[in-house]
Amino acid sequence: MTFLQVTAQLWDGFQTTLYLFFVVLVLSLPLGLVFSFGSMSRFTPLRWFTRFWVWAIRGTPLMLQIITVFYVPGLVFNTPMKDRMLACLVAFVINYAIYFSEIFRGGIESIPKGQYEAGQVLGMTRSQIFFKIVLLQVIKRIMAPIGNEVINLVKDTSLARVIAVTEVLKSAQDIVNGHAIIWPLFYTAVFYLAAVGLIQIVLGLCERKLSYYKG
Amino acid sequence: MPVLEVKNIRKSFDGAQVLKGISFGLEKGKVLSIIGSSGSGKTTLLRCMNFLEHPEEGQILVNGQLLFDASRPGTLTDAQLRENRLHFGLVFQSFNLFPQYNVLDNCTLAPDLLARDKAKAEGRPFDKAAAHKANVEKAETLLARVGLGAKLKNYPCELSGGQQQRVAIARALALEPDILCFDEPTSALDPELTNEVLRVIKGLKSADTTMVIVTHEMEFARHVSDHVIFMADGVIEEEGDPEQIFTAPKSEKTRSFLAKSLEQV
After folding, report:
1. Number of folded domains that form chain B
2. Mean pLDDT over residues B65-89, rounded?
3. Looking at the domain assignment, is residue B247 inside a domain?
């Protein structure tokens, strides 16, 4: 296989990688915010329920979670999961939402009580206080850990191959198996590095955008 | 009729009683200073008046209207609670400006939101631009009054502590509270910044500005107040006009507190 042919085939796989990355990112961030409200809730059963899932998801490998989402519906409920990508998305979104929720929780709890009280004495509602005062301050504070998770997500997409979703690494493996050449495997690093480089630039822009104030 | 009546307020934290039955009244346009050592319950009293703490006993009335009654817990809706809060303004020890908004926006954020909520509640169309324009004009006047007319577009992190506190005063005034409360407004400030804030507070004194000031600045309390309350261990140990309290205190506790406060090192 020529270099161009390999590149084309890896690009096909990389599109799957990017699809997985973007869909998971867009869904898990807001879901993570919802989970973080659950784990901070004053309603004890809800708080325990959320914290149980934080423990369960953080306590098991993502690879195992993908396998579970893909196989368990068929094994237990006799309704086999047909769409491999859907199984991946479900597992990834829940996993990442849980990690994001802990970052959100840390950020929200780090905002001084005085900010809430200032909003209260100015007659603002709870949701106005959260969305107009607290949220942007939280986002500024959690940019660095969120950035870490987003970059991890790019590379974690390679776990999708465990249920035979052909992302970029599996594309390379298929070439290796079919053509007795090994270098395409290492070539995938270029794709990951390019994606992560772009993400770093975007994260840097976001941080710069938020640097107009301190505190 | 007094603008503010506080009746028999009791509040405890984890079984420890911090306020043991506080009652007082305040006439419109008067300035009340609350002095006393740390832990005497001054700040808690102020927080109760702003509904940041909920007393176990007691009542709070403003202009004769019963705003809080501990004997009927849980009868206030969220909206009523917020409406009640608007009778009071509170200036915090630590300013608590919103760091992501500039000086002007700090002062117009809440008025803009309230204007919208009010229009919605009354079912009339809301002209966002017009409401904002009116609020900006009002905020600009107030900021000029506290000497910050040139800092409208600055962010809190670009201001000194004294300037931040003056923005906080303008922000509280923007909602036109019946009673403006100050919780040790200069305790977080360097001595050289204290005076600029005290001057502003003094400048607010007028026939229709009613103020309650918790402070450790004895000279200031003496000169600005119409009435002084000395608190000790959760009760009003002594109260009276400032000259009497500062020159001829009746209570032994007041005497010893003032002696320590005014002591020259």
Report:
1. 1
2. 87
3. yes
**Which domain CATH number covers B76?**
3.40.50.300
pLDDT score of B264: 66
The 3-class SS string of chain B reads CCCEEEEEEEEEECCEEEEEEEEEEECCCCEEEEECCCCCCHHHHHHHHCCCCCCCEEEEEECCEEEEECCCCCCCCHHHHHHHHCCEEEECCCCCCCCCCCHHHHHHHHHHHHHHHHHHHCCCCCCHHHHHHHHHHHHHHHHHHCCCCCCCCCCHHHCCHHHHHHHHHHHHHCCCCCEEEEECCCCCCCHHHHHHHHHHHHHHCECCEEEEEECCCHHHHHHHCCEEEEEECCEEEEEECHHHHHHCCCCHHHHHHHHHHHCCC
Cβ–Cβ pairs < 8 A, chains A and B: 63
Instruction: State chain A's mean pLDDT as an integer.
Output: 95
B201 inside domain = yes
CA distance B195 to chain A (A): 24
Write down all domains in chain A, each with its CATH number in brackets. 3-212 (1.10.3720.10)
Let me know if residue B134 belongs to a domain: no
**Structural domain harbouring B235:** 4-98+178-262
ipTM of the complex, rounded to two decimals:
0.92
Q: Which residues of B touch A126 (CB under 8 A)?
A: 78
Query: Chain B partners of A136 at a C-beta cutoff of 8 Å?
Result: 100
pLDDT in tens, A136-181: 999 999 999 999 999 999 999 999 999 999 999 999 999 999 998 9
> Is B83's CB within 8 Å of A123's CB?
yes
Exposed, middle or buried, A106 (CB in 10 Å: 0-12/13-18/19+)? middle
Q: CB B110 to CB A120 under 8 A?
A: no
pLDDT grade for B124, boundaries at 50, 70 and 90? confident
d(CA A87, CA A144): 29
Check CB contact under 8 Å for B156 and A118. no
- The answer to whether residue B149 is domain-embedded is no
Q: Which stretches of chain A sit within 8 Å of chain B by CB?
A: 112, 114-115, 117-126, 128, 132-133, 136-137, 140, 212-215
Which residues on chain B are in Cβ contact (under 8 Å) with A114? Answer: 92, 94, 96
The answer to whether A137 contacts B99, with C-beta atoms less than 8 Å apart, is: yes
Average pLDDT, rounded, for chain B: 92
Q: Per the CB < 8 Å rule, is A137 touching B171?
A: no
